[in-house]
Write a structure and sequence with these properties.
Layout (H helix, E strand, L loop, with lengths): L11 E10 L5 H11 L3 E6 L5 E7 L1 H11 L7 E9 L7 E3 L4
Parallel strand pairs: 2-5
Antiparallel strand pairs: 1-3, 1-4, 2-3
Length: about 100
Protein backbone atom coordinates (compact mmCIF):
# COMPACT_ATOMS: atom_id res chain seq x y z
CA UNK A 1 0.00 0.00 0.00
CA UNK A 2 1.39 3.41 -0.98
CA UNK A 3 1.85 6.04 1.73
CA UNK A 4 -0.66 8.89 1.91
CA UNK A 5 0.29 11.67 -0.45
CA UNK A 6 -1.18 15.16 -0.11
CA UNK A 7 -1.15 15.55 -3.90
CA UNK A 8 -3.70 12.72 -4.13
CA UNK A 9 -6.01 14.22 -1.50
CA UNK A 10 -8.54 16.90 -2.42
CA UNK A 11 -8.30 19.86 -0.07
CA UNK A 12 -11.16 20.44 2.31
CA UNK A 13 -12.12 23.44 4.43
CA UNK A 14 -13.19 22.85 8.03
CA UNK A 15 -14.65 25.22 10.62
CA UNK A 16 -13.46 24.28 14.10
CA UNK A 17 -14.74 25.84 17.32
CA UNK A 18 -12.79 25.23 20.54
CA UNK A 19 -14.64 25.50 23.87
CA UNK A 20 -13.27 25.76 27.42
CA UNK A 21 -10.48 27.96 28.75
CA UNK A 22 -9.11 28.89 25.33
CA UNK A 23 -8.81 32.68 25.52
CA UNK A 24 -6.02 34.53 27.29
CA UNK A 25 -3.78 31.44 27.25
CA UNK A 26 -1.95 31.82 23.92
CA UNK A 27 -4.31 29.45 22.12
CA UNK A 28 -4.77 31.56 18.95
CA UNK A 29 -1.07 32.14 18.35
CA UNK A 30 -0.16 28.53 19.09
CA UNK A 31 -2.96 27.32 16.81
CA UNK A 32 -1.72 29.54 13.97
CA UNK A 33 1.81 28.22 14.48
CA UNK A 34 0.60 24.60 14.42
CA UNK A 35 -1.57 25.17 11.33
CA UNK A 36 1.32 26.86 9.51
CA UNK A 37 3.68 24.01 10.43
CA UNK A 38 1.13 21.56 9.00
CA UNK A 39 0.95 23.52 5.75
CA UNK A 40 -2.67 24.57 6.23
CA UNK A 41 -4.16 27.89 5.17
CA UNK A 42 -6.94 29.86 6.84
CA UNK A 43 -7.42 31.92 9.98
CA UNK A 44 -8.07 31.82 13.73
CA UNK A 45 -9.95 34.29 15.93
CA UNK A 46 -11.46 34.68 19.38
CA UNK A 47 -15.24 34.77 19.57
CA UNK A 48 -17.07 37.13 21.91
CA UNK A 49 -18.66 34.15 23.70
CA UNK A 50 -15.29 32.82 24.90
CA UNK A 51 -14.57 30.26 22.18
CA UNK A 52 -11.85 30.19 19.53
CA UNK A 53 -12.92 29.76 15.90
CA UNK A 54 -10.70 28.35 13.17
CA UNK A 55 -11.31 28.15 9.43
CA UNK A 56 -8.68 25.84 7.97
CA UNK A 57 -8.09 24.52 4.47
CA UNK A 58 -5.83 21.64 3.45
CA UNK A 59 -5.46 17.90 3.09
CA UNK A 60 -7.88 15.96 5.35
CA UNK A 61 -5.07 14.17 7.24
CA UNK A 62 -3.48 17.55 8.06
CA UNK A 63 -6.83 18.91 9.20
CA UNK A 64 -7.19 15.83 11.43
CA UNK A 65 -3.75 16.58 12.90
CA UNK A 66 -4.82 20.17 13.66
CA UNK A 67 -8.03 18.91 15.26
CA UNK A 68 -6.05 16.50 17.45
CA UNK A 69 -3.78 19.36 18.58
CA UNK A 70 -6.77 21.67 19.21
CA UNK A 71 -8.31 19.10 21.58
CA UNK A 72 -5.56 19.91 24.09
CA UNK A 73 -4.02 23.17 22.84
CA UNK A 74 -1.14 24.95 24.58
CA UNK A 75 -0.26 24.03 28.20
CA UNK A 76 -2.40 26.72 29.90
CA UNK A 77 -5.54 25.87 27.90
CA UNK A 78 -8.29 23.62 29.20
CA UNK A 79 -10.25 22.48 26.14
CA UNK A 80 -13.61 20.87 26.86
CA UNK A 81 -14.75 20.27 23.27
CA UNK A 82 -13.95 21.07 19.64
CA UNK A 83 -16.89 21.27 17.24
CA UNK A 84 -16.18 20.47 13.58
CA UNK A 85 -18.32 21.47 10.62
CA UNK A 86 -17.78 22.08 6.91
CA UNK A 87 -16.18 25.42 6.19
CA UNK A 88 -16.01 27.67 3.16
CA UNK A 89 -13.24 29.32 1.22
CA UNK A 90 -9.64 28.92 0.24
CA UNK A 91 -6.92 31.07 1.73
CA UNK A 92 -3.34 32.28 1.31
CA UNK A 93 -1.29 31.53 4.42
CA UNK A 94 -2.66 31.37 7.95
CA UNK A 95 -3.60 34.52 9.86
CA UNK A 96 -4.83 35.76 13.23
CA UNK A 97 -8.09 37.67 12.86
CA UNK A 98 -9.76 40.19 15.19
CA UNK A 99 -12.32 39.01 17.73
CA UNK A 100 -15.79 38.52 16.27
Amino acid sequence: MAPANDANEANETWRLLAHGRVQGVGYRAACADRATALGLSGWVRNRAGGTVEVMACGAPRKLQALLAWMASGPPAARVTNVDVSPGEGTFEGFSLQPTA
